[in-house]
Amino acid sequence: MFEGMWPHALSNIEAGHSIIMELKYKNLHDKIKILEGGSKLKRGTSEQHDTPTTGQPRIINLTKKQLTKEQINILNLGPQYAMEISPKNALTISS
């Protein structure tokens, strides 16, 4: 009844797999080109700004002590640069 259908089914399976594999290899090839820098789709790196784009200062000094420019620059880098306490203690992460 179904004699001769197996070669037809096999060719359809092979055609489908070859299309999928071509797309996967093309995607991987494009990623390699981006990593090697040979692609026109280079991703730009963002520059770190001294002041936030919102216009509000990142550091608000609530003490009477005047901070030096070096101290403000370090504080602008983020809590991971705080030397007095470990970063794990400086950050609270809620899930």
Mean pLDDT, rounded to whole units?
Answer: 75
| Element-level helix/strand string | HHH
Biggest β-sheet: count, sense, barrel? none
Helix content: 40-55%
Structural class, please? mainly alpha
Total E-strand runs: 0
Uncertain runs: none
C-alpha termini separation: 61 Å
Molecular shape: rod-shaped
State Rg: 29 Å
Helix count?
Answer: 3
Q: Percent of residues in beta strands?
A: under 5%
Question: How would you describe this structure to a colleague?
Answer:
The protein has 95 residues and is an all-alpha fold. The chain has helices spanning 5-36, 69-77, 87-90. The mean pLDDT is 75.
Concise overview:
By secondary structure, the chain is mainly α. It is built from three helices and no strands.
Please outline the helices and strands.
Elements: H1 5-36, H2 69-77, H3 87-90
Which key terms come to mind for this protein?
95 residues; mainly alpha; 3 helices
